[in-house]
């Protein structure tokens, strides 16, 4: 005859008590050196968990140590790139200045200012309407910048000039391809002077005020800043002449391809002093 529900409940309770008593006795009175049943059960349950925890901890520790190592290596690489760029800029400034020296006094002026004559910067934004007009760099008045300072790329080639607005940590740079930009230039080959202005529609520049009667300029000639505008020091490479057209006007139409490119904006130098000036 099957047991009634109350009797089965009593039987289950008694059975549970017997099992609990057995486990307690096993815990308190081990059989010699062998682990108790309770210990074996606990070990069977917790061993995989402990192994998983130890493995996860070891993996996380290895990943963290690797991250710290890579961050340190990246920091060292960044410092080395900045130092290499700084040395290259100093060599370019020295080269342009020393090439124009005429006496020892001028040489002393250049050598005394070269180490404090530029601030390294990077582009962090571009003009939202036309990327050929201006960019924003990550240096500002707190770094000694002010309006109308020349800006060059990693090769010492002309990029533009700082303009307002400037903040403590950011500055606007007017690119040489902007319509309102202008700089005095001279041909490295023929010595012809003119004014270089931007053309933001094409991304090129125009060499202005060259008389139609002038036959000295040729396509392919390099243009350098002349220094006559008192903003840009002489000798900064600006671009090359790509087309010369004779118009029935007073001046020639001369097209110039600037050295400025998007890639050249990665690392920049703002020239804070020219040869013979105090930074």
Written account of the structure:
With about 280 residues, this protein is an alpha+beta fold. The chain is built from three helices and 13 strands; from the N terminus they run αααβββββββββββββ. A hairpin with a 7-residue loop joins strand 11 (about 235-245) and strand 12. The radius of gyration is 38 Å and the shape is elongated.
First-last Cα distance: 109 Å
Low-confidence stretches: 110-116
Strand proportion: 25-35%
**CATH architecture label name of the domain at 182-259:** Beta Barrel
Q: Can you say what the CATH homologous superfamily of the domain at 182-259 is?
A: Rod shape-determining protein MreC, domain 2
Number of strands: 13
Radius of gyration: 38 Å
Please tell me what the overall shape is. elongated
Secondary-structure element order, N to C: HHHEEEEEEEEEEEEE
